[in-house]
Amino acid sequence: MCFVLVPRQDERTFLPSRFVYVEHSPRKEEEAQCQDNLGESQPGTSKRSPLTRMSFKLFRRGSARCIGLLSAFVTILLCLYYISIGQPNPAPISETGAPSAALRGSPLNAINGFSVGAGSSAISHQQKIHTAIVSNQKRSSEAKVAQTTGSPESQSEEEYTNSKWGDKCYELLQSNTNITASEEHSKFDFQPEWMRSKEYWDRGFEERFDAQKKDKQRPPLKIIVVPHSHNDPGWLKTFTNYFQSDSRQILNLLVTKMQEYTDMTFIWSEISFLQLWWDQAHPTKQRALKRLIDSGRIEITTGGWVMTDEANVHIYPMLDQLIEGHQWLKNNLNVTPKVGWSIDPFGHGSTVPYLLSGANFEGTIIQRIHYAWKQWFARQQSGDFIWKPYWRGRNGKDSETGSLLTHNMPFDIYSIKGSCGPHPFICLNFDFRKIPGEYTEYSVKAQFITDDNLEAKAQLLLEQYARTASLFPHNVALIPVGDDFRYNKDREVDQQYQNYKKLIDYIMANRRLYNADIRFGTPSDYFEAIKERMKDRSPGFPSFKGDFFVYSDIFSEGRPAYWSGYFTTRPFYKLLSSELEHQLRSAEIVFTLAYNTARQAKRENAIKIYEKNYELIINARRNLGLFQHHDAITGTSKAAVMRDYAMRLFESTQNMVKMQESCLELLLQKGQPRHHGFLLSEFERDNFNKLPRKMPIQMANGDDSTATVSAGEGGAGGSVSVGSIGSFVLYNSLAQKRVEIVTLRVQHPNVKILNDKGVELSHIQINPVWNITDTYEQGLGTSVSGTVGRIRTSTRQFEVMFVAELEPLSLSTYRVQVDEVNFKRNIATIYCDDCTETAPAGVSPPDEAEVSPSPVFGARAKPAGDIQLENPHMRLLFDEKSGFLKTITRKNQKKELLKPLQCNIKFAAYRSAQFHSGAYLFKTDPEQSEAEKEVLEGYTDMRIIITSGPIASDVTVIYGPFLAHTVRIFNTRTHLDAAIYVENDIDFEPPPKNRETELFMRLVTNIDNIAQVPLQRDPLKEPADAATMPELPVFYSDQNGFQYHERIKVPAIGIEGNYFPITSGAFIQDTRLRLTLLTTHAQGAASYEPGQLEVMLDRRTLYDDYRGMGEGVVDSRLTRHKFWLLVEDLPGGQHVTQPPSYKVLSQQAQQLANALRYPPNLYFVSSLEQPELSAALLPLVRLLPKGALPCDVHLTNLRTLSDPELQLFPSASALLVLHRQGFDCSVSASRELSMEAICPLSSKGLGNVQLGRLSLHTIEATSLTGTEQKPSKDSFHIRSLAEISLEPMELRTFNLTFRSEV
């Protein structure tokens, strides 16, 4: 029975997006159901239910008898209800005991926050689909009753304040460690005497080794021999080719031979290969592998999809490939890795140890670090250390979260030659791979072990092992035996095992004599052994903070070779990776919500579609994961292999866009979804070689006819039907409100935009779309007046720019309509020389209408003198001749100009040193007197175009086909006005143009970013006076979009050793100002002179750099680089703080960085075939209906887990990954343009988080990869997301299980 009460003024009835919040009383609950039924009977949705009609009839009759009967009836119902449930029991969640089902037919009350329940719920189908947000909590085992809680309206705010959350503004400090990377690194001797021999083992090491042998206190020598094979998922061959030629054979041999060799051990890292093998392996082989893993003889190390690169990879795919690998291992082998093995990435960052620590790892092993670090760790006996995060929390205590025991392999490389001990020429004797037809240095040198040479060889090898162990206080040596794609021939497996077995058995037979213990083992055995030996020692393992970039090995002529080229190599592919990352993340979140919405509402057809297409998400995760491999995103594979990766990225990007379309279609429709295939992405992607192309929105007549306006009619002077209308959906995948500048292509300039409330936007701007044509394409044959081409405004397409305010995690439907009246005031003004049509007679311009309509944009001549752009926040000055930015002058609160900040933008290039600069390495040409060269001088055809309009003004400079550079500022009255947008289109053109060119963009400012650190001086020498103190510039580079590192110039090494990887941004600052540059993808950055910040944009090197790839890098493509540039104030004269603070972005910079990485996705609603569609769509869908996440909490992912039994199908669980991005409250661009309007700071924690209309069964705190429950400050089971707490900078994972009516 349902009836309606007209609310009094003081009662609140609140219906956003058809959710009803009601105060707690059974009566109100029934009213809520009733309200909902009414809510559904809006025009264009569905007819009223019989109950609703009945209630209206009763009221219309108005008879007192009816009302008396009704009230009696309701009273009886209520009495029965109270008797049936007994007293409400507010018992806490029971940790044990089976959850009981809710009483059939009893209405469930709305529960606050995002609460959880267990067991099957008996909510009626009607309620499940759309009523008050219903969720079920675990009942107490005795009472088995529903625990009821009031609505958010009725409860005081305090209940949602998380006391553990801490202050909304906080200062992060640097962690306390024994070793700080940047301090030690600056003191190294980078040209030691041993460079030519490449062996740092000198007399000092030998003397210490001799002394240790006599030391009775030193523990006995322990050696763990670890056979391994390093499998690159793509490098010189493609991933699939490597699998077919090598990796499959290696795994087959392991499972057969290791059953025969019962004490042999092995490790495996790359799950991408393991998954391919497993899917094709015979069940007996699968069982054999499982037995070997369960017995500990084969250890899975790291367990990521690949062995990820650590310089170029963003935190999202870095964690995602780890989750993908760990989830696969858990579902197929029921194993969770415990030890990291990262032996081939070119330099190591501190993000991977943080993630492995969060995944409950016990230790990790690294290999490729600077040769000077290798020597330093050996000298200090500090090769095993606790790697800590760079920051510590607000309480001042160093956080245990993120710290990991790390072992640095002490020698050059992970091959047998480079790892048995300090002398490679001896180690060569112990690589027993002798394959007929293979001629290598080891196959010539090594001799098999026989009874005759056994003793001599054993002693020779043991001497090397003992020297290795002497570099550590615990006297344990980890000895890897393997190399790239080893153990791929059964002859090798036999030879390596049998020869090592003889040596090991001989040493163990004489262990008293040698005082040594040796056996086959795994990295876990090593960590167990060293922890055991170090547990009572004081001091224990030293602590370390920082990272190991830039990596350097040694050229054959004995000079350092810095691996800083790959930070930028092949930017086109790095951009493809970030595009797939964005589309996959957007699809993951919306898939989880749409799939569970369909499940809870019993939409069988939708469920089938999602289950069928879920495999596309799995493939996208794996293709993205594959590309994070240390020879893929680095750009250091052969060109054909790079194309194979790109095809995979491109295909998955297409699939994820389609996946989003299908999920958004379900979420946008009211009630039962009836329409399909009505959303289309605004981008057309032809193939991976080209940039995606924006398509114009199709507008249909608003009346019942579906006539479209042909493009020919719709030129500037063409008539467009006044009823024409087009709709598009903006999907904001971030969990915060955002203000975005959105650009939309249209076919007619006379349009207006209406937001999701149907309100016309007062600020829009109509910009031209430029056609740039080469002269030979015009059919002229000869170039006109020596120019490369001509630039014209299109008469078929226009760009509408507008400011969109998007709700957190929402779908907003906007409309574009014809506007004959006001559109002229929104047309941008163009200043440009030679941009208007003056084609010679007889030559009709290509692709244009026969009759040229009158132009929309009257291009005015560019005024003489420097160019100025201005908004209420700042004024920019551009050079008249080059068109590049010169100064930024900001304004104070009274709009008065402040002192100009010099900020020259310069494009130039380094000349590559032939054979020393390639895909991996970067080195400037030492033969040239000038390291830099001017690249733009060769392009005589230079154009400057100025666009000015109500929202944005920009200056674009075009240097032939090589560079199109745009600088834009906004006038939106939001925080965006404080930022400067920069976009570069770069095309190196086909070789041999621009050969040996390493192109960079440099910002030259008068910011005084000098390091405030006293230099290490020799006290015996004369004290240097202040004038000769070198000025060392310092800048801050981000690492993996996760953290920032301070980088101080090391003058002893060239520019190549002072280039660092950035993934999302870098900044320089002095005591007053900070200049931040944010980017979309990985590249190299440096600050080599005071006041300068530069980023490398693209590289072309014709020659190989002798690091194995065997070819140069000449496959450059047209790439589009996007940046935000932000000038911010620091609080009154910052000086060196004690203890030193940890520097992070401001809140605004962090928001801009997130927005640049994850822009809103725009989808056209094609209602041409379905005229009734617009009535069936919700104009605004809030997927976080109770409000945003806190400003600094980034929703990293909401990732549906695969069903453990049917792994190509989705389960009801998802991993929620949250990252509390630390930011600096004290830094801001301006007070009046603060973020407060969009994202007010709060110290209350997550608060009431509600995901769509979904109700939850359980929330569990897990390890970062979701494989294990992680007891934490919140305990395993969490009743509501409001209880979750995160430290600043912390990354955490939770397993959410959504409820369904089974």
From TrEMBL:
Q: Which UniProt keywords apply?
A: Glycosidase, Hydrolase, Membrane, Metal-binding, Transmembrane, Transmembrane helix, Zinc
InterPro entries listed in its UniProt record: Gal_mutarotase_sf_dom (IPR011013), Glyco_hydro/deAcase_b/a-brl (IPR011330), Glyco_hydro_38_C (IPR011682), Glyco_hydro_38_cen (IPR015341), Glyco_hydro_38_cen_sf (IPR037094), Glyco_hydro_38_N (IPR000602), Glyco_hydro_38_N_sf (IPR027291), Glyco_hydro_57/38_cen_sf (IPR028995)
User: Would you identify the family this protein belongs to, as annotated?
Assistant: Belongs to the glycosyl hydrolase 38 family.
Protein's recorded name: Glycoside hydrolase family 38 central domain-containing protein
Tell me which domain of life the UniProt entry assigns to the organism this sequence originates from.
Eukaryota
Query: Source species, please?
Result: Drosophila rhopaloa (Fruit fly)
Spans annotated as Disordered: 134-162
Q: What Pfam families is this protein classified in?
A: Alpha-mann_mid, Glyco_hydro_38C, Glyco_hydro_38N
